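User: What would this chain look like folded?
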Amino acid sequence: MRRASAVLTVITAIGVALTGCGALENKEMSSSATSSTETSVVPRTDAVTPAPNPPPSTDQIPPIGDVSLDIDDRGDLGVIVVDGAGRSVYVFSRDRANDPTCYDACADTWLPLLTDSKPASGIGIDVAAAGTVPRRDGAEQVTYKGLPLYRYAGDKVDRDVNGQGLDMFGGGWHVLTKDGRPLT
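Assistant: Here's the prediction, encoded as structure tokens.
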């Protein structure tokens, strides 16, 4: 009886181990299928982060108020454009100058940076390049050099840059270099 119990324990342990290996293998295959590489505007040496599946969502309504833009050194990413609170801001590769295209489910994950006045500019930001563009819902979205700006719901603290290089909602998401170019 003890021997049968021991054999059953070993078989159960092997089954659990094999199931775990299969799950890891599926996760790796899923991750490699969701990641993408693009030709870079600004060269990078680190790997592109695979998109989370499913993407994070939020039931937050993006705040509307005074917005300022600044720059901050983010280590391996270099100096990037951030909002006045130091949160990373992103641009969407599908957007064209002064034409935001991220709405509905996209805007639940990529919160448009909204304002009710002209954005202020910190040291290192081109004052003339900070502006706004009307969204189809009537809100004013902050732009830099004409590119609509967003925050990523997956960034939990001010210095997070979890959205950099993600491919979601039909395009790539990137922070801006200090000169206002997408870091791809």
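Residues 112 and 150 are 4 Å apart (CA to CA). If you want, I can go into more detail on any region.
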